[in-house]
Each structure stands twice: as C-alpha cells, then as structure tokens.
Amino acid sequence: MVHSGPPLRVGILGAGGIAVASYGVLPNLHHYSDTVEVVALADVDHLRAAAVAAEYGIPRVHRSIEDMVAGGGLDAVANLTPIPLHHRTSKVVLEHGLHLVTEKPIASTLAEADELIMLAEQHGVEIVCAPPDLLREPFRKARELVAGGEIGRVAFARVHSSHQGPGGGPSGWPSDPTWFYQRGSGPLLDMGVYGIHQITGVLGPARRVAAFSGITDPVRTVRGDGPFAGLQIEVTADDNTLFLLDFGDSAYAVVDGGYNLHASRSPRVEIFGRRGVINIGVPDGPELEVFKTDLVPGVDGWVDPPRPIAADSTRAAVGRAIIVGHLADVVLGGARNELGADHARHALEIMLAVEISARDNRIVELGTTFDHGSSTRQELP
Ligand SMILES: NC(=O)c1ccc[n+]([C@@H]2O[C@H](COP(=O)([O-])OP(=O)(O)OC[C@H]3O[C@@H](n4cnc5c(N)ncnc54)[C@H](O)[C@@H]3O)[C@@H](O)[C@H]2O)c1
C-alpha cells in the first residue's frame, strides 16, 4: 500500500515468542514502516518487556494493557498474549475505541467472541484476527480456482494442521511452553485453528462437525537446547485431535490438530474436486500445484505452476508482521478486511464443536457463518 499520511500508532501486548521470533511480529514490522509505528509495548514480565523495547527502539514500556491504553497516543493494539488471555485483554483494547489485531483464536467462548465483535461495532473499529494464511498467495489462488470452478465441484479435502508441539523439536523453544499443553489452550486452539481458517477460507463456512480427541502422553518433556529443555509438562489439554467438517452438498474435509506430527511427506492441504486436485504446501515442492482432468481434451495432468504462483514470497519476508500490516491497510487504505472477526468466530465455533463432538460422541451442527464472498461448490456444467 502506498501511504503518505501518518502511520498507525500501534501498541504491542505480549513480548514473548511470536513477538520476537525471526518469523514473528517485531523483527518484520520494518517492512511496514510507512504505515505502522510501534509506540508502546506491555508485558506482565516487565524485565522482558524492557529488554525487548530496548532492542526494537520502542519508546514506552508498560506492565499491563490497562496501563498501556491509559498512556494514550495509540490507534491500535496487537494482542500477542497466551490464548486464555485473549478475550479479557482484547476487551480492554476495544472498550478504549482502539483497533485490534489479535493472535488466534479470537476468544475462548462464542459469547466472548460476540462481545468483542459487538464492542468493535459500537466503537467503529476493526478487528484483524490471525492466522493470516488467507492473505498469502497459495490460499488466495486456491480460493480463486475453486470459486472459478477450475477443479469442478469439491468432494473432499484433507488438511494437516499439526506439528510436534512447542518444545517438541530438536531446536530450543525460547519460552516456557507449559501453557500450550494445558486446559484452555492445546493444539486444537493453537494449531487446528490454522487448518480450519484455511479450508473454510477456501471452501466457505462449514455446517457440521464430527471429532475424535484424546491425550497421548500425559507428561511431555521439553526437547532441544532451549532454556526449558528437560522440563516435564503435565498434559491436561487433548494433544491428539482429528475431525471431519461437512460443508453441505456432500463436500467434506478431514483436519488434524495435534502435537504428534513430527514429519510429513504429504501436502498441508489437498482439495479433491470432480475435475481436478489442488495441493497447497507440498513438501520440497511448490506452494501450490493443480491437477486437472482434460487439461487438453482426453489428457489429465498436473499443471506446473509459474513462479509467482508457486512461490509464497510474502511468508519469509514479512512473517507474522503481516497481521499488523493488514490492519494498517484496512484502516488507512480502506482495504477489505480479509481476516475479519466473523470468520474467526466461525472458526472458534468449529473448535468448540470439535470438543463437544469428541466428548459426547455425536455430530454437532454449526450455527455461525461468515461472508465468504463466493460460492465454492461448483456444479458440473
Ligand atoms: N510462538 C509461536 O511460534 C507462535 C506462532 C504463531 C502464533 N502464536 C500465538 O501467539 C500468542 C502468544 O504465543 P507465544 O508463543 O508468543 O507465547 P509466550 O508465552 O512466548 O509469550 C506470551 C507473552 O505474553 C505475556 N503475558 C502474559 N499475560 C499477559 C498479560 N495479561 N498482559 C500482557 N502480557 C502478558 C507473557 O509474559 C509473555 O511474555 C498465542 O496466541 C499463540 O497461539 C505463537
């Protein structure tokens, strides 16, 4: 976005992993220096906040969200706190009439999400919600291809939305990952949320959910060479969850959201249509590839994608800063909010439905929806 006026004045809430990781917010915000200025940082861990503020030249340091908003001079806050704190802290932001960027998920209950959406409407401010995948080229393109009928009517999709868990890999996890494994968080909310946003972003809102879920090892030991290596974590949130989404018209998706995926040689997302297949995130392959029936009459085959479509060039360049940059595009440039709260609420309803389905051994109907912008379940001509 080309912008000549003053930048959006942003306060960062939470100076932990996603604030400072190489793929996180602060190390990549310089890409948006014409539209975003970080003027304050708040964290309950004041020493950490002070160190991070000094490293990134952030002028003001606070101990709480209340303290930061009371300091004034802000247009928006980026909420990078742990999952169970999102609603309480985001509420303070919106009550002060500030725009909000929030890490995922938007809240922990539908009532909380509704309250945040209502507050944003009352104050005329925007909410931009992670995850940001729908801003990225492979998902934009997949959505366009499906909506344009390029792979025909979608029959089913398979979505990997798991990893080995925070601190589960050989490289050191920088902060204490305990909260990720405990009730109120867990991989469904931490990781499954990506697959849910991705597949509903491409196919549209889901209608029903069926799930299995459980705990694998009740105690996890932090791996790697980080400061918490060897820490024993009591696992109180399900760490192994698989679920089915029904989009209506016989279109389904199977999604995993767990901390048990050490490696995979299959694409992150596969969408199977009556006239083709879309793969997104092919290991050691392109970010997007397409198989089409009758590529030329009588011949089916894979389309070799040209470079700009295949390469997800934005991912490495702007990391998680993209969510803050998107808010600036929306507020300052009038761009459409592609990461809106209605979609995040629908994703949250799916996550809550997964928990109910697995617990009560039943299929759960969904009540929320969001403006997806196009019909994706193409009829064959
Ligand atoms: N770490 C990652 O790689 C990663 C990636 C994508 C998204 N996220 C998301 O980012 C969010 C934060 O995760 P993280 O890994 O950075 O966690 P973290 O534990 O590393 O950092 C959280 C920070 O928030 C601070 N904090 C806690 N309560 C607070 C409060 N009330 N007010 C202000 N600060 C408070 C903590 O002191 C800590 O510094 C989560 O929603 C997570 O799902 C994390």
General description of the model:
With 381 residues, the protein is an alpha/beta fold. It folds into two domains: 8-129, NAD(P)-binding Rossmann-like Domain (Rossmann fold), CATH 3.40.50; 136-312 and 340-365, Dihydrodipicolinate Reductase, domain 2 (2-Layer Sandwich). 30% of the residues lie in helices and 22% in strands. The chain is built from eleven helices and 17 strands. It has helices at residues 17-20, 46-56, 65-70, 86-95, 110-123, 137-147, 187-203, 307-310, 313-318, 321-333, 341-360; strands at residues 8-13, 36-42, 60-62, 76-79, 99-102, 127-129, 154-160, 208-214, 219-221, 232-234, 240-246, 252-256, 269-273, 276-280, 288-296, 299-303, 364-365. The strands form three sheets. The chain has a nine-stranded mixed beta sheet with strand order 16-15-14-13-7-12-11-8-17. Strands 3-2-1-4-5-6 form a six-stranded parallel beta sheet, with helices on both faces. A two-stranded antiparallel ribbon has the order 9-10. Strand 11 and strand 12 form a beta hairpin. Helix 4 (86-95) runs parallel beside helix 5, helix 5 (110-123) runs antiparallel to helix 11 and helix 6 (137-147) packs across helix 7 (187-203). The radius of gyration is 21 Å and the shape is globular. The two termini are 39 Å apart. The site of nicotinamide-adenine-dinucleotide has 25 residues, from helix 1.
